[in-house]
Amino acid sequence: MQAAEPKETLYVRNLNEKIHPTLLKTKLQKLFSPYALQQVIAHRNIRMRGQAFCVFDDAAHAERALKDLQGYPFEEKPLVLAYAQSPSDRTVERKEGSEALEKHKEARLARKAARGPLKPNKAAAAALRKAKGSGKAGPGDAGTNPPHKVLFIQNLPEETTVDIMQAVFSRYAGFSEVRMVPGRKGIAFVEYKTDQDAIAAREGTRGLQLSGQQLKVSYGKKT
């Protein structure tokens, strides 16, 4: 099989999904900085969990990073690296100019539209089926409330703000809002558009820690 041609952008996968994207970017920047790293792209949506893109000055630096760090143990999981299928926005603009960049963005939007809406992940779908069958929340819930579009979050660090909560929970489809409880530290409510959205978010944040404290995520009571 012919080896892939080196490109300026590496596709990084098998990343620890429990790490918040902002922190993940910081850690990846530190790891890849010796290779003339230009940019790290880590999206918050469910489709891109556990994945990122690293953009380098040129293909030679990307090639060296791939050879040196393929399989490297990063946050308890070995990195899986490959050359990205398409160049980054920054690379297109640097090489071909702003007009080419706009066409590049339009093509990406067209591909995204063709994929259609994001489907719930398998874990969320399984949790929903189980919950519907039992009338109770899945294993690990604090309480026995059935699935609901409102999540009840407990054991939050005292310094937790609305902005921090939004950064964590808005990466899941259907996010609506965060409601802190005045005068009550350590708890909050997060609302999604549907029960299915909330189930996916709860599955995605299972075992999540903020400032060393593991969050307790359960379903709020239906009124």
From TrEMBL:
Native source organism of the sequence: Protomyces lactucae-debilis
Region of interest: Disordered: 111-146
Pfam families: RRM_1
UniProt-listed SMART domains: RRM
InterPro entries: Nucleotide-bd_a/b_plait_sf, RBD_domain_sf, RRM_dom
Entry's Gene Ontology molecular function annotations: RNA binding
Name of protein: RRM domain-containing protein
Alphabetical keyword list: RNA-binding
